[in-house]
Design a protein that fits this description.
single chain, 217 residues, Arc Repressor Mutant, subunit A, 5-stranded parallel β-sheet, 10 helices, globular
């Protein structure tokens, strides 16, 4: 397959070594190529407006804007443009949230390179991709709700969930408000609702939940 006919992929990741590694990996294929990259959301949006791409590889924790909002913005520009979330975070609830909002796959940076290539090809063919573990865990969440106890993050709205994992990453109220382009009081209200819905009494319980569910970078 000629260079012209290779699938054009843009990667959005603020870690240059990750972008370089993926670029070198896909250079070994005949049908895929990383043809551009961005390190922050606004740069990604500018490039999506200027060029045509077949797929976006999106890091979960880009600086300056929440990744769920980034995904939503990508889909506003082109609802048919596939987006693969590429991250070190392993929480199945994040997988569900992103798939609901239009992501085609949620892949760990610890995945085997050959697996990643196959995932990209599958997504480019118009399909979604889940690992066996992701499918098993999501099935458990939907078929065994009684085992989730009082801590059911399905009760949280997408925005509350965004605030929750930003808090779990150690971001303060000011930083979260800036990332989400809302007021500090709005973040305080979201925090109150999160603790109430999850039956938590403090941020410490939130952080403990996050650690137990792999919500970390």
């Amino acid at each position: 397959m000629s260079e012209v006919n290779r699938k054009r992929i843009i990667i959005a990741d603020d870690q240059p070594i990750v972008s370089l590694g993926l670029k070198l990996l896909l250079e070994q294929t005949s049908d895929l190529c990383i043809c551009d990259q961005a390190s922050e959301p606004e740069e990604l949006f500018e490039k999506l407006d200027e060029q045509s791409f077949d797929l976006v590889i999106l890091e979960l924790f880009l600086p300056g804007k929440d990744s769920l909002d980034v995904l939503t913005e990508i889909k506003k520009r082109d609802k048919n443009l596939p987006v693969v979330i590429y991250t070190s975070c392993s929480d199945e609830q994040l997988t569900i949230r992103f798939v609901k909002n239009g992501a085609s796959a949620f892949i760990s940076k610890r995945s085997d390179p050959d697996e990643l290539v196959e995932v990209l090809r599958k997504v480019l063919s118009g399909k979604k991709y889940f690992t066996l573990h992701q499918m098993e865990r999501m099935a458990e969440m939907f078929t065994k709700p009684e085992e989730t106890g009082t801590e059911s993050v399905e009760l949280l709205t997408d925005r509350e969930f965004q605030v929750m994992y930003m808090m779990a990453l150690g971001l303060n109220r000011v930083s979260i408000a800036k990332n989400l382009s809302v007021s500090k009081n709005t973040i305080s209200n979201h925090r109150y609702n999160i603790l109430k819905k999850m039956h938590w009494s403090s941020n410490a319980e939130l952080v403990r939940y996050a650690l137990n569910h792999g919500i970390n970078r």
